[in-house]
Amino acid sequence: MADHLLEVRNLSVEFHTALGVVKAVRDISYHLDRGETLAILGESGSGKSVSSSAIMNLIDMPPGRISGGQILLDGVDLLTMPAHARREVNGRRIAMIFQDPLSHLNPVYTVGWQIREALTTHGTDGATAQAEALRLMGRVGIPDPEHSLGKYPHEFSGGQRQRVMIAMALALRPDLLIADEPTTALDVTVQAEVLALLEELQQETGMAILIITHDLGVVAEVADRVVVMEKGQLVESGTVREVYRNPQHPYTRKLIAAAPGKGEMHAPLPRIEPVLSVRDARKTYGAFDALKGVSFDLMPGETLAVVGESGSGKSTLARILLRLDEPTGGTALWKGRDLFQMGAAELYKLRRDLQMVFQDPTQSLNPRMTVYQLVSEAWVIHPDILPKAKWRARVAELLVQVGLGPEHMGRYPHQFSGGQRQRIAIARALALEPKLIICDEAVSALDVSVQAQVIALLDNLRKTMGIAFIFIAHDLPVVRDFADHVMVMQNGKVVELGTVREVFETPREAYTQSLLAAGLNPDPDVQAAHRAARLQRA
Amino acid sequence: MLSFIRKRAVASLISLVGLIVMVFFLSRLTGDPAALFLPVEASAELKQQFRELHGLNDPLLVQFANYVGDVVTGDFGESLRKARPALDVVLEAFVWTLWLATITMTLVTGAAILVGSLAAFRAGGFFDRFSSVVSLIGASVPDFWLAIVAIVVFSVNLAWLPTSGTGSIWHWILPICVLFVRPFGIIVQIVRGSMIGALSSAYVKTARAKGVKSGPIIFIHALRNAMLPIITVIGDQAASLLNGAVIVETIFGFPGVGKLMIDSILQRDFNVVLAAILVTALAIFLMNLLIDLAYALLDPRIRH
After folding, report:
1. How far apart are CA B287 and CA A104, in angstroms?
2. Interface test with B, best of A59, A86, A97, A106 (most B CBs within 10 A)
3. Nearest C-alpha of chain B: how many angstroms from A194?
4. Cα–Cα 20 to 30 A to B190, which of A463, A511, B68, B246?
5. Which of B149, B119, B109, B118 is nearest to B251 (CA)?
6. Chain B residues with CB-CB distance to A under 8 A?
7. Which residues of A touch B207 (CB under 8 A)?
8. What percent of chain A lies above the pLDDT cut of 90?
9. pLDDT in the model for residue A1
10. Hey, are the CB atoms on A90 and B208 less than 8 Å from each other?
11. Domains in chain B, please, with CATH?
């Protein structure tokens, strides 16, 4: 009767919260066979992670409750198993890796200890576990595995940490690996490596992979079949190609349409007098050269995208331009004055012209201030902009401009969704009528459909108000849709600088080419062609 | 790691030097030391003699240099009442206090970590609510009241334990039990709060996904991460015991440094008071150093 390795039947999960019962997952069913990869695709709040947490018995009950259904592993219902037998399944038969490996590894134990524990918990003796841990570290591609076993999680890079997580998860050769957004926090080239590693290991062991993601590109790259979830319900399922080519449900169509990287690229603007002219900007932290001489010009109303992987110096550039950090050298001419040399009085004026929107609006908005207070605070600091009597009207105006309403003024940040919070952050930046807004990964944390809306909003502000943008991002398709010029950075240096069309269509530098090649395309056929090309190169 | 310890030790040393300076100037700024050290009814002649004997007519800086020289060589002068070196008197009492504090804090730490962790594991459950009430009462009960009630119940009415003094193991039980209550109440609440945070962390989720049992999840995965704030509070509480549990020691007639300090102040034995202040301060600085070391041992991120 056990036709499938894993079969989820009519699963329903609810959470009992102060606001009542939330039905996180409603009557969903899917199945998965050995050697197969199934993707669960959905945005935040879709319930895509809840069903996998139910499979792993990771739902806290209360407040959670599995209100119906079965989860069959080789025909045996995991939900009715006795507790000790259920615990034996975790790690031995089903293992899991997570989005953020740094927080999911215990910071106070060595990675060797943590991998050994995965084995000894299920009865392996210490010496065997040690040898096996060493072999696994080598297998997932950690350099110098022997020495690395004695290191702590914070001593590894993000990609290496995820490799350690994979080594730990695969220690007992589970039949099923659940990967919850395993590459979302990683750089694009690292993402490609980690996905390739997962696939190799799948071929070696014949395990099934259940991958949970919001990224159509990841689905196209690794999955055989996909199920799409929206608001706790399964709205569509099929092979990846079927679903992409011929989506049946409106939500799936919307998701596919919202995937960035398909629109018309911006035509280059005429090069007139630049609003910001940076020459040889440098920054060192102790002995570390974070920025090794960066130069560029930015025109009014232009978007310069700064792309690069972690450690490339792109955020450092933003910080020294805003003088949140002191530059070590170079010049940055703003309206003819070097903003690197400005004293406190001049900086105070500069703050009006230069604003920043951060990646995580949950952290950058003070949770104890209302939207009205958040947006109007700028005028408390710069009282000459607007008389106090006009504040309410202006806040209302700004909120409408960013797609919210005046009725939102009295609310607090936690009462909004992630996309709405980022709109509040943008309204706050607009309050000072800036000439330049620096966006540091401003849309990276948002769902794809919300991302598209926020980008459209920024583009509209650029066109109507002539605001220039420095748009720092690691997500190339978003950059392609929004940027006029693109600056590619690596290790604190500019690798390539050109119009968006030049960089995306005829990249000159090998690094730019590898970045573009590592990016995932939502179209499974395009992605298959990429893979074939990559395999041929290898 | 070594440079971390050195940095911390240097910081402690600076504070200690600051304290030595402060003690000197306080004893000079609060008025004529002769008036402080001698009984109120002492004659002017006697006071003059006293000043000459102790070099109090010298310039302040010369006095300070002499004082520092004395302190560094461990010479705090004679106890005016006991006619023995003040430092000997203090060290003798301090050993009693050190034992009392060590035994009490060991018991408190073990019990509070166990109770707090179990409460956090089933937060909101019966045991959690029960231990919350108990620890809140423990943290709030005044120790002089508890000490007196304990004497009335266990020594006077039941006659199980001696009322005060030293001599047998039975004499230790009531002081330890009374001193136990307050730090226990406080630390249980800190452990509970810190452990709730640690138990809801992502790495605990990973451990559950690995199939690790509840015991190791609580006491190996979560506890070590939760220990930093707990250790800080343990240090604070231990410091207050090392300072001499003045009231409890006095009520139980326990010959510790707290009782000695009170007695010496009442008897105007200022050499002993000064020595007691510096010895307990030194002990507290050493303990803080131990706590810093414990941080580094528990969390590899602090070592770097």
Report:
1. 33
2. A106
3. 19
4. B246
5. B149
6. 201-203, 205-213, 216, 221, 224-225, 298-301
7. 106, 117
8. 45
9. 47
10. yes
11. 2-72 (no CATH), 86-303 (1.10.3720.10)
Note the pTM of the prediction, 2 decimals: 0.81
Contact, A268 vs A299, CB < 8 A?
A: no
Question: Which residues 6+ apart lie within 8 Å of A254 measured at CB?
Answer: A449
Class of residue A166 by CB neighbours under 10 A (exposed 0-12, middle 13-18, buried 19+): buried
Q: Domain segments of chain A: what residues? A: 6-258, 276-521
Residues 6+ apart with CB under 8 A from A433: A352, A385, A465
Domains A6-258 and A276-521 equal at CATH topology level: yes
pLDDT given at position B304: 67
Identify which of A104, A108, A122 has the shortest CB distance to residue B211.
Answer: A122
Residue numbers of A between 190 and 229 with CB closer than 8 Å to B: none
DSSP-assigned letter for residue B85: B
Query: What are the pLDDT digits (tens) for A473-522?
Result: 888 888 888 899 999 999 999 999 999 999 998 999 999 988 888 888 88
Name, of A38-42, A523-527, B52-56, the range with top average pLDDT: A38-42
Helices marked H in A140-264 = 145-148, 158-169, 188-205, 216-222, 240-245, 250-258
**If you count residue pairs, one on A and one on B, with CB atoms under 8 Å apart, how many are there?**
70
| A119: nearest Cα among A70, A172, A74 | A172
How would you class B9 by CB atoms within 10 Å of its CB: exposed for 0-12, middle for 13-18, buried for 19 or more? middle
Superfamily of domain A6-258: P-loop containing nucleotide triphosphate hydrolases (3.40.50.300)
CB contact under 8 A, A104 and B206: yes
- Determine, for residues B209 and A121 on separate chains, whether the beta-carbon distance falls below 8 Å: no
CB contact under 8 A, A96 and B225: no
Which A positions 41-70 lie with beta carbon below 8 A of chain B? 56-58
pLDDT in tens, A210-258: 999 988 889 999 999 999 999 889 999 999 999 999 999 999 998 888 8
Res B1: pLDDT: 65
Residue recorded with tokens 């004695």: A150
Task: Choose the closest CB to B211 out of A88, A105, A106.
Answer: A88
Q: How far apart are CA B140 and CA B183, in angstroms?
A: 10
Closest chain A residue by Cα to residue B302 = A108
Using CA atoms, how far apart are residues B119 and A356, in angstroms rounded to an integer?
Answer: 44
Q: How far is A459 from chain B (nearest CA, A)?
A: 37
State the nearest Cα–Cα gap between A180 and chain B, in angstroms: 12
For B260-287, the pLDDT digits (tens) are: 888 888 877 777 888 888 888 888 888 8
ipTM: 0.79
Task: Give the H/E segment covering residue A31.
Answer: strand A20-32
A-chain residues within 8 Å CB-CB of B219?
none
- Which of B250, B268, B267, B251 has the alpha carbon at shortest distance from B259? B250
CB A354 within 8 A of CB A322: yes
**Chain mean pLDDT for chain A:** 89
Q: Could you tell me the CA-to-CA distances from A260 to A226, A427, B134, B145, B239 in Å, in that order?
A: 20, 23, 58, 71, 60
Distance from CA of A56 to the nearest CA of B (A): 6
Which letter does DSSP use for residue A155 in this model?
A: G
Sign of CA dihedral B127, B132, B137, B139: positive
Asked whether the beta carbons of residue A107 and residue B205 sit closer than 8 angstroms, the reply is no
pLDDT value of residue B30: 65
A41 secondary structure, DSSP code = E
Q: How far is B218 from chain A (nearest CA, A)?
A: 13
The per-residue pLDDT for range A275-293, each reduced to its tens digit, is 899 999 999 988 888 899 9
> Domain A276-521 classified CATH 3.40.1280.10?
no
Among the partner-chain residues B202, B299, B300, the one whose CB lies closest to the CB of A104 is B202
